[in-house]
């Protein structure tokens, strides 16, 4: 079952976010992963994880989802099951991005400082 459009849920509405997370039981995902190639498994997990990350950090959802896909599968499944665990992992990813992004984009010192401040304020 594909996830509903993310626009249906407001990221500042805890109950809506929790309801969204409850739509993704790990048991169903585990079953869907059976008899799939590793590449297909990664894609399916990413497609499940992405809308959840997008609720918490829309601007960097693609990058953060990719970062989370590098975690062991048990940790990824915990992120899918629990908004609090995902929030913690997204905040860890933001900490990494705060240093990585300004260097990658070759931001000047002032822009890098503003980016860091904005990202740290966006932590949940």
From TrEMBL:
GO terms for cellular component: cytoplasm; nucleus. GO terms for biological process: positive regulation of canonical Wnt signaling pathway; protein polyubiquitination. It comes from the Eukaryota. GO terms for molecular function: RNA binding; ubiquitin-ubiquitin ligase activity. Residues 25-102 form the PABC domain. InterPro entries: PABP-dom (IPR036053), PABP_HYD_C (IPR002004). PANTHER family: E3 UBIQUITIN-PROTEIN LIGASE UBR5 (PTHR46276:SF1). This is PABC domain-containing protein.
């Amino acid at each position: 079952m594909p996830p509903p459009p993310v626009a249906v849920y407001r990221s500042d509405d805890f109950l809506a976010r929790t309801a969204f997370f409850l739509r993704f039981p790990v048991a169903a995902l585990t079953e869907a992963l059976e008899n799939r190639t590793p590449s297909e498994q990664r894609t399916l997990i990413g497609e499940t994880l992405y809308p959840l990350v997008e609720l918490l950090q829309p601007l960097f959802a693609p990058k953060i989802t990719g970062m989370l896909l590098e975690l062991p599968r048990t940790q990824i499944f915990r992120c899918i099951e629990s908004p609090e665990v995902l929030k913690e992992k997204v905040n860890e990813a933001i900490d990494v991005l705060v240093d990585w992004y300004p260097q990658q984009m070759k931001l000047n010192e002032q822009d890098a400082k503003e980016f860091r401040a904005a990202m740290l304020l966006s932590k949940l």
